[in-house]
Each structure stands twice: as structure tokens, then as C-alpha cells.
Design a protein that fits this description.
45% of the residues lie in helices and 17% in strands. The protein is of the alpha+beta class. The protein has a five-stranded antiparallel beta sheet with strand order 4-3-7-6-5. Strands 1-2 form a two-stranded antiparallel ribbon. The protein is elongated and about 65 Å long.
Length: 273
């Protein structure tokens, strides 16, 4: 058995050690096969506890919804953290892990939007001479799905694909301006202070009206401009952004980079049905 399958079997064996003595026969479903399938099934049930309305779970919730005892549920969650399927933060519970983020990005990479985004982002970066990024909503913040680094600058700015951006980033503010469900808003703003929450909410209508958002990382000398990319029925599906230094990118709606960014986002957006 491969290493990954053996690791899964370890979880099952800890739950039913008396079953390990059965001998496997060719062409028959062995007890070990059954245990492995049970582990896979339970891993899947844990992952199905997550959705757009719930980005974190705790041990009590998982125990209740899986119908298992607390110690068994804990072993499964711990094994999933070990293999990157979940991440655990003390006091905050469990969230989807880095392995799933990588797999999810591979799936996203097959979507028509990301296929079309490559050449559009390349043209945008070459026109604006800045790094461009495409982000999708990750449940609690923007998830970077594609990046095109501008090659002509002496200082290159890069953003890791798969990283989750703060809700106060330009990309996060654009998504926030389009969220309508109160639970989704609360989840997106869960990590900010009351003062930051009030400021972000106050900017929502202006961002919708202007169709873009700015954010500065003053300590790094960087500025980001983000605009929405729309799908069918004018629903936001992604954000497209440019990232550059503060002195190269003024907060000017008439700046040529802003016009280039808007044109690129319009090219990626679907017509309203």
C-alpha cells in the first residue's frame, strides 16, 4: 500500500485495532479496504461541513454533525490537519487546509475565466508596466488565482498564487462592496476591529459607484487598484488588480493605468443576461 493510504489506515486502526488480524485475499474486499473506504468517507463528510456560510468548524460541531464520539472525531480532524486537508488555529477551530487550496486552484485553472485571463492579464501588465492579479472569493477573503509579473521593471512585485488577501486590500474591498448576505459580511469582517469594520462598511457604496477600490501598504511602499469582473446577471465573479509602488500609481481615476484596468476587466466580464 502507498504511503498515503497507509497513513489513512493508521487512523482507522486506532479506532478498531482488533480488526487488523484479518488476512487479505486476492479478488476479495479485505477488512483493510473497508476501513480505508470508511476513513475516506468520513474525511469527505468533514469537508462537506464547510460551505460559503461556514468557513470554520470546531470539535463540538464536527462531533455533533458526524454522529461520532468526541475522541474519534478528534483523531480524524488531527489526521486531516497532518496531511494539509485542514488547518487548526487555537481558539478559532478548523478551516480548509493548504492541500485543498492547491487542489482547488488546479480546478480553478480549468475554468473558462482563468483560461481567458492569461493573455488579457499579460496585455494589461505590458500596457501598464505593473503586476496584475486575478482573485476569486475564498469565503472570508480574496484568494489569488492568477498573477502576471511585470518583467520590464527593475523592481519586480509578485504575489503568491493561492494566498488569501486581507479584507482591507483593494480586492477585498471590491468583494465586500458586492456582498449582500449579512452572514457573509459578518464572516468577511470577523478578523477586523470595530473601527476598521465601520470604515470598510462606510466605503461600500462609494466603491460600488466608482467601480474600483484603492489600498496602500505604506510600510512596503505599494499601492493596489482593483476592479470587479462580472459574470452572468451582473454578479461579481472575480477582481482584477494592478500592484505597483506608491510613486508610480497615483490615486487618480483618470490615470491611464485605471483605464487599462477597466478595459481588461470589461473584456473578462460576461455580458449581462
Amino acid at each position: 500500500m502507498a504511503h498515503g493510504a497507509g497513513s489513512v489506515a493508521t487512523v482507522a486502526n486506532a479506532e478498531s485495532p482488533e480488526a487488523t488480524a484479518a488476512e487479505e485475499q486476492p479478488g476479495q474486499s479485505s477488512p483493510r479496504d473497508s476501513r480505508d473506504l470508511q476513513v475516506i468517507s468520513r474525511f469527505t463528510r468533514v469537508l462537506q461541513l464547510f460551505d460559503h456560510e461556514r468557513s470554520r468548524i470546531d470539535l463540538a460541531t464536527a462531533t455533533s454533525e458526524l454522529g461520532l464520539n468526541r475522541s474519534t472525531t478528534y483523531r480524524y480532524l488531527t489526521a486531516m490537519v497532518k496531511h494539509g486537508l485542514l488547518s487548526h488555529t487555537t481558539g478559532q477551530g478548523y478551516s480548509l487546509g493548504p492541500t485543498l487550496s492547491r487542489v482547488g486552484l488546479l480546478a480553478l485553472d480549468r475554468l473558462p475565466l482563468l483560461d481567458r485571463a492569461g493573455p488579457v492579464m499579460q496585455a494589461l501588465s505590458e500596457t501598464a508596466h505593473e503586476t496584475s492579479t486575478l482573485s476569486v472569493w475564498g469565503g472570508s477573503g480574496p484568494l489569488v488565482a492568477r498573477v502576471h509579473d511585470e518583467q520590464s521593471r527593475f523592481i519586480r512585485i509578485s504575489v503568491p498564487v493561492g494566498s488569501t488577501l486581507p479584507i482591507a486590500s483593494a480586492q477585498g474591498q471590491v468583494f465586500l462592496a458586492h456582498l449582500e448576505d449579512q452572514r457573509a459580511l459578518d464572516r468577511a469582517l470577523a478578523a477586523v476591529t470595530d473601527r476598521e469594520r465601520a470604515a470598510l462598511l462606510a466605503r461600500r457604496s462609494e466603491i460600488r459607484r466608482a467601480g474600483l477600490a484603492f489600498s496602500d501598504a505604506s510600510a512596503d511602499g505599494l499601492r493596489c487598484i482593483a476592479v470587479p469582473v462580472y459574470g452572468v446577471n451582473n454578479a461579481i465573479t472575480a477582481t482584477l488588480s494592478l500592484i505597483g509602488t506608491l510613486h508610480r500609481m497615483p490615486r487618480d481615476l483618470d490615470d491611464p493605468r485605471v483605464h487599462a484596468l477597466r478595459r481588461a476587466a470589461a473584456e473578462l466580464s460576461q455580458p449581462v443576461l
